[in-house]
Design a protein that fits this description.
Radius of gyration: 32 Å
CATH class of the largest domain: Alpha Beta
Strand content: 15-25%
Distance between the termini: 39 Å
Number of helices: 24
Mean pLDDT: 92
CATH topology of the largest domain: Rossmann fold
CATH superfamily of the largest domain: Succinyl-CoA synthetase domains
Number of domains: 5
Largest sheet: 7 strands, mixed
Strand order of the largest sheet: 9-8-11-10-12-13-14
Low-confidence stretches: 244-255
Shape: flat
Helix content: 25-40%
CATH architecture of the largest domain: 3-Layer(aba) Sandwich
Number of strands: 30
Length: 703
Amino acid sequence: MLEHLFSPESVAIVGASQKPGKVGHDILANLVKGGFAGKIIPINPAGGTMMGLPASTNLSSYDGDLDQVIVAVPKSAVVATVKDAIAKKAKSIIMITAGFKESGAAGLALENEVIGLCKRGGARLLGPNCLGLLNTKNGLNSSFAGDLPLPGNIAIMSQSGALCTSILDLAAGRHLGLSKLVSIGNKADINENDLLTYFAQDQETKVIVGYLENIVSGDTFIKVADATCSKKPVVILKSGTSQAGQKAAASHTGVLAGADTAYGAAFKRSGVIRADTFEALFDYATALSMQPLPKGDRVLIITNAGGPGTMAADAVEHAGMTVAELDTNTAAALRGKLPEAASVGNPVDVLGDAPPERYAEALKAAQDDASVDAIIVILTPQAMTRPTEAARAITGAINGSKPVLASFMGGKEVLPGRQELSAAGLPDYESPERAVAALKVMYEYATWLRRPPRIVTRFRVNRRRAVRIITRSQRNNILQMNEVKAKKILDAYGFNVLPGRLVTSADEAVELSRRIGFPVAMKIVSPDIIHKSDMGGVKLNLASAQQIRDGFDLMMMRIVQQVPHARIEGIYMEKMGEPGLEVILGMSRDAQFGPMLMFGLGGIFVEVMKDVTFHLAPITQDEAIQMLKSTRSYDILQGRRGHKGVDITAIAVGLQRISQLTTDFPQITELDINPFIVGDFGTEPIVADARITLAAADKKFVL
């Protein structure tokens, strides 16, 4: 654990200074001003007294052991300082000094040397290149960030020191209390996984907030984040979401995965709430820290203006939640208490002349209504509005049974009311949409907490056959597996592959077609041709020997003309299956998080709309179904928008089988089944085409 980091009994500042503006001065001043009750030991070659504290000329001259050592010295003095700190049995070292791996190869070598010293000496290292940390419970401010914030229940970890200072300033402006704040810098030792584990057990922390640029260990993060989110919410802003670093992928899934998709899938899997903006980060954290979670998705809106109420109702519906219907008894009670012109539907419009008491009456009734799960209260500044008194009436009426979020819209006129809400601990947002967005993540997190146990189905498969095919391909350096080999592997894992075979002459094609039955499909097989249809390498519904001969000759001639240097292995002849809905199943392996499964509808839905969804393997049946439901085209699967419904469970099983295959074989880097043809309920989907990409490294298997 990291108790020694957040609750040391003694802290030494190496590089402490008398000069304002120096980092060593600011850290020492912060420790003194924060009221830290433990020993504070300034270390400066000049010795003497600093801020009323006796200073030592170096660590070695200090008489006694130390819990925490803060290093704020030039890079050239770092190694000697760390050695001295370890000699004093320091349990934690906070490395403020910069110029390590972020500066190049020499800096990386120095950082590795420091890591080695700390590991051998049994000290945990925070940083380097960090701002430090603070703990409001014990007045510890081992940082140069400024004054301690108000005590609260939100813990912050940030990979950016500059962002920490912005967070502290924002928290002060919102009267938002924090429990702890940690700048993790280069994460040479202590990283997000360590801090999540610690904050999960921390009694002063209710909500964990993070800013991350990368994650050290994907597998560990998912396990730690899942365990932490099961106890308290984690909200993370992840930067670096652009496509600039996207690899050139051979498969459809690899192209669509993008640079940031794996992080989104990892967060979804582990229960982490993702914030897309700095603003959203604290919108979500504020609501989660101040209000109970909703038991359902039914939202009631109370407003003194029709337009903002409609805006909120639209936002609720767009967020996938429900605009609640008031119980008839509640509606009747409100009619007796509100003016005749007031609306007692949803939104409940208390009118522009609403006094504070009218808000309180509406809020009390809504909280007592079993058909309401959450409440949003909107106030706009009108001539009769008294924002401060209204805020007091609203906060006084809250009984804590349901989440209540406020949106006091405006500027100068509503500012006193907003300050009153903040002081009373009620989340307030400048617009109804922001309030609804915060409520949505609260509902989604509550739903995640109620998730069923994760049970991953293991299907009976012919793993030995797949091993032989993959091993042989890797041995021969055939990493782009053609349709023939890909289908053999999928067949071994229980997919429905129609009868077919590779042929090299028109006579062979005709003979095979007569044996498997007309009509048939004809597809070129070449390691140099990925998109066969674009090259004229696919013909469907060939129903006679003459069509097959003509098609064979024409295809071979055109392929040679269009791709003269392509290596042609032959033509794959396959029996045509029954028509159905074309979907795409796939997998792209992320270096950090492993196999990412993909689902999408074929055609325009994937090519143009990019309507696809991802999830990390291994996947449960419930998670597979949720993948399908999260697409905009889910209505088509169900049989709406003029389409006939298909067997959704069969698609989910296909995703689970890919999950098992790609978990069993880490050599598979990409996989596409495109199209996967799905029919009516009870019918077995068909693998119409498939592609598998292997890693170059040779792997050995245990059967």
